[in-house]
Amino acid sequence: MNKLKRMKMLATGLLVLAAAVYAAASALEPGRPWLHYVAAAAEAAMIGAIADWFAVVALFHHPFNLRFIPHTAIIPRNKARIAEGLSQFIQHNFLSSEAVVARISAFRPAHTLCRWLIKRENAETLGAYVIRLVVYALGAVEDERVRAFLSRSVAAELRKADVAGAIAQVLDVLTEHQRHHALLDEALAGLDELLHREDVRRFIAEEVRRNAPSMLRVINQVLDLKLDERAALRIVDVALKKISEVRRDRDHELRTRFDAFVHGFIGKLKSDAATREKVHRMRDEALDSPALAGYIGSLWDEFRAWLPGGMQSRLPGMLVRLGEKLDDDPAIRQWIDEQILEAAPALVEEHRAKFGRFIEDQILSWQEEKLVAELERHIGPDLQYIRINGTVVGAAAGLAIAVVTQLLR
């Protein structure tokens, strides 16, 4: 027996008890005058119990199913108003930006996250969920229909893409504020270091000697001058000198030529039809190449085979290390919290009305019987105390009225 039924039986039992006491006291009153006060108290208890029973029942139902009585079945008749009011109440009191931000701030999300991730079992649990999600996604993509659809869609979008324009935009960014000279400097530094190595110098000399003209070989053999090797070493020295000049002189002629070449190439990518056509033809040839498709497919198969096992062995440790790094760095934790707290108000304002409408729609979708049953199940037991209190207070009031009336007589 649930609590609601027990409370109803208790309240109804008190009403029946009051009726029995009233009947007995009224019957025995002629021989025992003091029973007048008992009968008056029991009579008032019945009145209070019946009145409060009517009030409680009228919230949920029509008493005795008499629908013509006004202001009964209050809750089901006002379902729409209740739904709207509850929606507005939750939006403004539970989902307000201030309340959500205060709750998030008290929660300390970054600190809570890092403390949670530090525990190995939590990292393993989270890693297992991620791996299951990845395996499921990979399995879905492996379906031949999905692969064919993705292949067609991606290829179609790439064929429509302005690759030449995209390359030009990337190069524009790279060349802004002379950024491309940093790449040139790195390349020159690497070449300078390479040519300074003795083994490289000897290798260049040997290549020149081996590929020199026949006449020069004869001269070398007769005179033993080794002109090739000397010429090669001289070439290396000249190259090193030239590289050093270009690295030191920001206004060197080769830098100017480099700038002119880069800007000219960017201009051609943007406006020269022949260059753009060539780039797009290369794009289409690459997309149509079976070799490229096979290579990408083999890479994908290898990656797919490796990923679950690789993630399973490494992901939990990575998550634990992430938690440890967060735990050791208060500044980054503060930054994470600040970003969340800064983004939260806009998200709440954007979505809280949707939550409110969802609650309102759910209540409106309920049948009246279900709404009444749910509300009565949750608050009905407490409402039965109104009936009990009405019985007790009515008895006390009836007794007091009877005593005062007798005293006034």
Describe this structure in words.
The protein is mainly α and 409 residues long. It is built from 18 helices and no strands. It has helices at residues 3-28, 35-60, 74-77, 79-93, 97-107, 109-118, 120-142, 144-160, 163-175, 179-195, 198-210, 214-223, 227-248, 253-271, 273-288, 290-328, 330-365, 368-408. Helix 11 packs across helix 13 (227-248). The protein is elongated and about 150 Å long. The relative contact order is 0.15. The mean pLDDT is 80.
Radius of gyration: 45 Å
| Oligomerization status of the protein chains | single chain
Give the distance, in angstroms, between the N- and C-terminal Cα atoms. Answer: 50 Å
Summarize model confidence as the mean pLDDT: 80
The structural class is mainly alpha
Question: Could you give the count of β-strands?
Answer: 0
Tally of helical runs: 18
Helix content: over 70%
- Low-confidence stretches are none
Order of helices and strands: HHHHHHHHHHHHHHHHHH
| Fraction of residues in β-strands | under 5%
The biggest beta sheet reads:
none
Shape: elongated
